[in-house]
Amino acid sequence: MSDESSKICCDTSKDGQVYQRLGWSAQTRAEKLSQTGWTKGLEWPQVLTFCKYLDDFSVKAGHMVLKEGSREIYLGILIDGALSVLKEGHDGKLKTISTLVPGETFGEVSLIDGEPRSASILVKEDASLFVLPLKRFERLQSEVPKLGMWLVMKLARQLSVRLRHTSGTLVEVLETLKP
Q: I need a surface site. Which of 20, 41, 103, 107 has the fewest CB within 10 A?
């Protein structure tokens, strides 16, 4: 499914190449994705079908996969390595707000609402990523609705967990501000 090319990196290196397409088969992508536990609840044929919609990339440590405010819309799934989620503070400096490990996603908010990126993603350790561009997400929804609904519900649950965690952290911070 290479008809809609994925653009994942907004960083550049001296040679202009910060990521490399891995070119794995859907079978290999399905095996790698299953190893992260990300496909829990799917039957193997569904995992294979889902992986046909994905691109795979290798990205070196130290490079930005995306920048806060950018408009590339895709879902990223970390397969191996580590990513830092960064948010720009009022002082203009990037602050780490989270570290992603294999099996975790990024980009789900922009995929759902179409708005610019709300955070930056820095490759902390050399990483392999799977990418689902917006156009393929939309095709998945129309071509395999049951699988598309599974993905939407999975992302909704992940966002719910993150929101609950953030709310708990906010309460803790607010309590420290009380006189």
A: 41
